[in-house]
Write a structure and sequence with these properties.
The structure holds two protein chains of two kinds. Chain A is an all-beta fold. Chain A has strands at 14-24, 27-35, 43-44, 48-55, 58-59, 65-69, 72-75, 86-87, 93-98, 106-122, 129-133, 136-142. In chain A, β10 (106-122) and β11 form a beta hairpin. Chain A is globular and about 50 Å long. Chain B is α/β, with parallel strands linked by helices. The longest helix of chain B has 18 residues, at 91-108. Chain B is built from 14 helices and eight strands. Chain B is globular. Chain B has an eight-stranded parallel sheet with strand order 6-5-4-3-2-1-8-7. Classes of the chains: A mainly beta, B alpha/beta.
């Protein structure tokens, strides 16, 4: 569907200050950032239809991405089964990305594609709900 | 003689809350400052341990009640029928979730719970014995584009009458009495480049009951800016409006349902400094309500489509309600 709801109550969906490199065994091998859900209420993680991370236009393989909420780190494929994990819109989730050698010093374009169903706004007789776009695209800098 | 108590939903401060300008305490404090004597809490919005109430959160709620003099009176439940990725929840599942909501409402001390019509009339009927046990009155929200007499709502009325349960009823939202276009939508369309003449044309189509697709086509033929499409969608959806001549009929519909109404939602989208809502006729609605037997909360609900925050508007709304109700 072409139309998707956008509700940027807080302009910053990806928290730019949270962006930093991940070190695995002392070597730079990825990055992480915090995300706020762009809606007036929280959602069960099972409402997430799509979560993809792009860096400088290149999609990160799904298995290298995780989503962490309240200290629980999950692979992306499990989100759709997470019918009891509730993501409040004021609670930040952490997205972690494993990327060999990490990102080089300098500026990078980071894009999060994040699509959800608004689970009480049914759009037709079947399993079709108002899509919510909680994605974001920012330019971030790696200083080390 | 009516006994109307004025409250606010903390949803009014949803923008401030999402921006971390207000925490939960600030929201309660602002509602108290605005003049609310009780508040509605939307579980999915402000309960950190949703769908349950942790003892820690309950402690906070109680300490704020002692500090600011107001506590939760209504629980806004969401009925997330689409929460599974592969199919809709069944009635059995929807009912089970609604029972958790009853427990939450009860623990918070709320005597009324707003439910959404995603909970089918059949599941709603099965909720009655549980609602009675927890002594929480479950009211289906009558939200625009539904009205007190629309067929969907009549199905719930049948259930309420058939069961005779005093714990099943309605929570009407005054947005369903809109008789003019939504001002924030109108202003946003103008800002996006839509010409006022085309907006007036769209409103006229809505008043005349022209089909939305036909209206869209005519507007495109007249050379309207494409941004009018979103505005048009609203005019036929959640912020639809009726011709003023239909208002007495709509208000009569509400009057008929009043014996089953547990709480009212005073929806508003904008209030001028003179405290006038441009699309929802509060003078007529409250003029009618004050001369009835309605006994319950009128919970004001600011829907912040301007993303400007609800603090000032909520004060104006309660001041307006007081004036119109002679309180």
């Amino acid at each position: 569907m072409a139309f998707a709801m956008r509700m940027e109550l807080n302009k910053e969906i990806i928290k730019e200050d949270s962006f930093k490199s991940i070190y695995i065994n002392g070597k730079k091998n990825g990055f992480e950032f915090d995300v706020q859900l762009a809606y007036y209420r929280g959602h069960y993680l099972s409402d997430i239809d799509l979560l993809e991370v792009y860096c400088d236009g290149e999609m990160i393989p799904q298995e290298a991405v995780t989503f962490e909420l309240k200290g629980k780190e999950m692979p992306i494929y499990k989100l759709k089964y997470a019918v009891t994990e509730f993501w409040s819109q004021v609670e930040l989730a952490k997205v972690r990305v494993i990327k060999k050698d990490g990102l080089a010093q300098g500026k990078h374009e980071l894009e999060l594609k994040l699509m959800l169903r608004v689970p009480y706004m049914q759009m037709g007789p079947d399993h079709q709900y108002m899509p919510l776009d909680s994605g974001d695209k920012v330019t971030v800098a790696i200083n080390e | 003689m009516s006994n109307i108590k004025l409250g606010a939903t903390l949803f009014c401060y949803g923008t401030e809350y999402a921006r971390y300008q207000y925490d939960f305490e600030d929201c309660v404090k602002q509602a108290a400052l605005a003049g609310a004597t009780g508040y509605e809490i939307v579980g999915t919005q402000m309960i950190p341990s949703y769908p349950n109430v942790s003892d820690e959160f309950l402690g906070l709620v109680n300490s704020l009640k002692a500090k600011y003099g107001i506590g939760p009176v209504g629980y806004g439940a969401n009925n997330d029928k689409g929460m599974r990725h592969d199919r809709n929840l069944t009635d059995d599942e929807m009912l089970s979730d609604a029972i958790i909501d009853l427990k939450t409402a009860n623990k918070l001390g709320c005597k009324v719970m707003r439910v959404q019509y995603m909970l089918s009339p059949e599941a709603f009927e099965r909720l009655a014995p549980y609602a009675e046990l927890y002594d929480v009155k479950a009211g289906v929200e009558i939200h625009n584009p539904e009205t007190p007499t629309s067929p969907k709502m009549m199905k719930y009325l049948e259930v309420i009458k058939r069961t005779g349960s005093k714990h099943l009823g309605f929570v009407p939202d005054f947005g369903c009495f809109a008789i003019a276009p939504n001002k924030p939508h109108w202003d946003k369309a103008l800002a996006a480049g839509v010409k006022e003449e085309h907006l007036k044309m769209a409103a006229e189509f809505r008043y005349q009951g022209v089909d939305i697709e036909e209206a869209r086509q005519k507007l495109m033929e007249a050379g309207a800016h494409p941004a009018i499409n979103g505005t048009l969608q609203g005019m036929y959806g959640f912020v639809q409006f009726s011709p003023k001549e239909k208002l007495p009929e709509l208000l009569n519909g509400l009057k008929e349902l009043l014996p089953y109404c547990f709480e009212m939602h005073g929806k508003f989208h904008y209030l001028s400094e003179e405290c006038v809502e441009p699309s929802i006729p509060y003078e007529e609605i409250l003029g009618m309500l004050k001369n009835t037997d309605f006994d319950g909360y009128l919970i004001c609900e600011y829907e912040d489509e301007l993303y400007c925050g609800g603090t000032e508007f909520t004060k104006r709304q309660i001041a307006m309600e007081r004036k119109l109700l002679g309180m």
